[in-house]
Every structure is written in C-alpha cells, then in structure tokens.
Amino acid sequence: MTKRKKGLTAEMKKEAERQIWAQSRLIDYDTVNYRIHDLVDMFNPRQEADDDDGEDDDGDLEKRVLFVGPDYRRKNVWSDKDRSAFIESLLLDLPAPFLIFGQLEERLIEIVDGVQRIRALDAFVNDNLALRGLTKLTALNNFHFSDLDETTKRKFRCKFLRIALLSEKVRLETRLDFAGRLNKSGRKVRCS
Length: 192
Hints:
- This protein is an alpha/beta fold.
- It is elongated and about 65 Å long.
- The chain has a 5-stranded mixed β-sheet with strand order 1-5-3-4-2.
- The protein has one domain (28-52, 61-181).
- Helices cover 36% and strands 15% of the residues.
C-alpha cells in the first residue's frame, strides 16, 4: 500500500480535475453490438500479413472492412487451447469482454483491442480450429464448427458481442495509448 501524499493544495486538485476532463474528452465512442457472423465476414486476416494499401486482394473491401492496423499488429499469442477456451465461453453464453474498434472511414474499421478474440472466431467459424482442452463442454473436444448441429451453429453465429467503437475523431496516438494500456500484461487471473 502506498502512502497518501500529504499537502495537496486546492490548486493541485483543481489541476488534476482539469487534466481528467481534458484527457477524457479525447475519447469519443459509441457502444454497438455485432453478431459473430458479421464480425467474421468483416474480418480480413490477409491484410494483417500485407503492408496493405487498404484494398482487399479480391477487390471486395465493402464486404471485408475489419482489419488489424500495422500500429496494433500483434503476433498470434493465443494457443489453440486459449482460443478454444474463448469459444467454449461463448457456447456457454458467458459474457465476453468488450472489443475495441476504431472507425477510420465509413467502411474501414481497425481492431484496437480484441485481435486474439477475432482471430479465434475467424478460425473456428471457418473450420480452421478444432476445439481442445475444454473443461465444461468436454464432449466438444476435437470438434470443428462444421461438426456442430445446425441449431448450435446458428445460435453461435447470431450471438452478439459488444463493441466500443472509437470515432474517427480519436487520433492515432490516443488509440495507440489506449491499446497499450489494455495490453500491458498477459498474466492470467488467479483465484485467491
């Protein structure tokens, strides 16, 4: 526990409040919901590998507008077991943490936070992930998405995830700072 700083003046407190007000005004966002199938349809993993010019290789940018910008590019750090645990959580209808996206242009959105979750969804729905290490839905170990029954697949694809969508007004340096704060540590939460 840190000691409380003594001798804070009224002027110091006023300056602290001014900073909070000024800095919080740099973040302008809306909360939106997207279905999993929309997120997967919008995601273009090929753009991660390219030093892209903003155009989809198929010329179909209108369909695929969600990408990982070069400033946020993170390696695939989740193992198949980590990705499977996230998918299992969604199948169990557990609430998922917010994804953070940045609106760049009308049809172009970059992932600020949530790259690993989007990659997991993309891999699973496109049959590039066999579920592994599930602890609650153990009967689904080794299942691909196509192995699920139609009702379960439809329910999964139609599940909504919450997004904090940063407006175009939010500057790159603010988005980078935000992303850095959210990704400070890969430490796992431990039960006490």
